[in-house]
Amino acid sequence: MNIPTVLALPYPAQGHVNPLMTLSQKLIEHGCKVLFVNTDFIHRRVLSSMVEHQDGHDHESLLKLVSIPDGVGPDDDRNDLGKLDETILRTMPATLEKFIEDVHGKGDDRISLIVADVCMAWALDVASKLGIKGAVLSTRSASFFGLMCNIPVLIDDGIIDSNYGLTLTTKKTLRISPSMLEMDTRDFFWLKMGDKINHVKVMDYLLHCIRRLHLTDWWLCNTIDELEPVTLSFIPKILLIGPLLRSDDDTSEATKSMGQFWEKDLSCMSWLNQQPHRSVLYAAFGSFTLFDQNQFNELALGLDFTNRHFLWVVRQDNKMAYPNEFLGSKGKIVDWAPQQKVLSHPSIACFVTHCGWNSIMKGLSNGVPLLCWPYFGDQLHNKTHICDELKVGLGLESDENGLVSRKELKNKVDQLLDDENIISRSLELKEKLRNNLAKGGRAIVPPKIDKLHLAFQPDKLSLGV
Ligand code: UDP
What we know:
Elements: E1 5-9, H1 14-29, E2 33-39, H2 40-48, E3 57-58, E4 63-68, H3 81-106, E5 111-117, H4 123-129, E6 133-138, H5 142-149, H6 151-156, E7 173-175, E8 183-184, H7 199-210, E9 219-221, E10 238-240, H8 253-257, H9 267-273, E11 280-284, H10 293-305, E12 309-313, E13 331-334, H11 339-343, E14 348-353, H12 357-365, E15 370-372, H13 379-390, E16 393-395, H14 406-418, H15 420-435, E17 453-456, E18 461-464
Parallel strand pairs: 1-2, 1-5, 2-4, 5-6, 6-9, 7-18, 9-10, 11-12, 11-14, 12-13, 14-15, 15-16
Antiparallel strand pairs: 3-4, 7-8, 17-18
EC number: 2.4.1.-
GO molecular function: UDP-glycosyltransferase activity
Protein name: Glycosyltransferase
């Protein structure tokens, strides 16, 4: 029997590789082979963090981890996202095309479909040139995806300028659909990337990707309609396929680890087994968040100050000296956790999170209330969604020095864990997300929408259909 081969192309970052890897494993369960194409740099990291299957093959070779260069020079910094994106766009389309031609030349795998991250949607050009079908996956929320899709409209209508800055006529708030919560325009994700990232270059790249989306009818998104009910009505073609979670019992530990940039420290699971039901704060901030020494100290002392058990992920690349007063006697610290497993453990009481979309989906799928501490980009927008729309979490606020203080952390933890409404809403949402995990999921057919347009209202701007 001829097994269809899918080429999966993630953007080179942990929060993008993970959901595409999960989707790849689902495709394999549905009878496909997958060629998972990381950049060489990410491929090396993924292989070195895998305990088993060092050759990068699994499911009897139905999943092959392979790689192509990202074009970045040996002395260049991959954390410089503007430069990285520019280089990817300059070099990777040709490299991907050559890679596919080589695969086809060998004759064993003929690629039937390319599933690219939305942030790699330039690959749709390669797909169409080679006569291969294409699909895209948004690893962020649908409302965020909606905002991205509407950036050209925002520019055309003068709401942002050609450098993506707010203009004199930009209102303070905006709705991208009449039924959605207002967004604070100052929180547009590209304005919250920090000084070190050239947001104009990043946005030029994303805009290029957005302009390729018309080349496919399949816009997959890791969300469900109960989380973002109104999005179905304003993003053409969107197919909601969330939550993208690896099942805890249907795959081996090695398979579940595929795609991780750091080796998971499984010792935290036996530690969690010793803690009482719903007693542990889980604090983890994704793959990109960096704290400075002051904030690191305050976080460490805040965890002590809560006087509760805690599991804290401190990545190697953000390891700092612990403050002298830090006891950590009620805690466990790891470099990288098996996050899905941790969040499904009965001892977990709440999740102190940076609000990365994948972390949110995992927290909510396990009914864990969230304490939101966004770092940058879409995370601010996600915080509003969690706290004001879904009401399944609370936000941590910075003090006059720009720090989340130990006192703020303790107060909000106490407040969150005393709030029966938040806890019961989190459990209700868990049920809804879990229902979508049922075998086969639920098919959601989006309404056909031809055109988005901007409609001015007296005191606010709304983007409606
Ligand atoms: N993650 C993990 N172990 C950790 C911390 C994070 O496996 O200790 C995973 C998490 O489950 C998610 C990804 O890393 O799949 C982080 O993606 P997210 O969108 O939450 O944040 P980002 O890293 O993109 O900021």
